[in-house]
Amino acid sequence: MIDVQNQRDYRNIPIDKVGIKNLRYPITVLDRKNRYQHTVANINMYVALPDKYKGTHMSRFVEMLNLFRQEVSLKKFAVILEQMKEYLDAESAHIEVTFPYFIEKRAPVSAAPGLMDYTCSIIGTSDPDGKVDLISQVVVPISSVCPCSKEISNGGAHNQRGEVRLGIRFKRFIWMEDVIELVEEAASCEVYSILKRVDEKCVTEKGFENPKFVEDIVRDIAARMRADENITWFEVSAENFESIHNHSAYAYITSGPFVS
User: Fold this and answer.
1) Nearby residues of 223 by Cβ (< 8 Å), 6 or more positions away
2) Which of the residue ranges 70-84, 169-183, 209-223, 238-252 would you say has the lowest mean pLDDT?
3) Rounded to whole angstroms, how far apart are CA atoms 238 and 200?
4) Above 70 in pLDDT, residue 172?
5) Which of 96, 118, 142, 232 has the least CB density, counted as fewest CB within 10 Å?
6) What is d(CA 118, CA 113) in angstroms, rounded to the nearest whole number?
7) Does the pLDDT value for residue 260 go beyond 50?
């Protein structure tokens, strides 16, 4: 049968990224406690297309996933990217894998167990020289108490749930759990899936004793990132879903420009 994708294109315009987007696919990722965890990912896969080709072979992207779905991890990403380049005859390749990651957390006083889900991403690129760039990203729910509200009020202070997004480049492998724990330590208090009355009292008082602006949260995380010799680049943002405003509060810090 005629291979239309491999036919010549005469417009002389290369395409930076071409491939598949928003594919839901079951994968297995590394789990610090249980070795492996099964989850469902949203996957984007692209390659660079030279100007001489009319198109790429879209079905081959899905075929590639069948080869690696038993383990999609930071350790495997370099291999996956190189295989994409070889399988699709491309000079560069790019992949984004986003998935819910579940960690069992026990309530702070009663120790009642519950599962917390975190949105995690692994983003990887392999350039024409074979240089592989990897970014690990987590989205962590947090709670914060407003320092200004606490300072000016005769009693109490407004608090709210928020979300911290942290992306990092690194020299050595780092567990998602370690990054999540670092973010949670920068909040007024952690978020839990199960809280008994004794736990609710604990987290309410902990947050009140540890008020944080979004500015405080991103600065505290940035300080930890800058002090860690394993981290070569980072970007961190915090968004509070304000309880007394019809808008969010937001802050962002990066160590340098993003290079995809």
Assistant:
1) none
2) 70-84
3) 23
4) yes
5) 232
6) 16
7) no
Tokens of 196: 């008994």
Mapped onto helix, strand or coil, the DSSP state of residue 41 is: strand
4-254: CATH architecture = Roll (3.10)
pTM of the predicted model, to two decimals? Answer: 0.89
> What is the rounded distance in angstroms from the CA atom of residue 164 to the CA atom of residue 186?
10
pLDDT for 183-205, tens place per residue?
Answer: 999 999 999 999 999 999 999 99
User: Among candidates 158, 253, 251, 247, which has minimal Cα distance to 211?
Assistant: 158
Average pLDDT over residues 29-43: 93
CB 109 within 8 A of CB 197: no
DSSP three-state, residue 218: helix
Residues in CB range of 237: below 8 A, 6 or more apart? 164, 165, 218, 250, 251, 252, 253
Q: Is 249 exposed, middle or buried (0-12, 13-18, 19+ CB in 10 A)?
A: middle
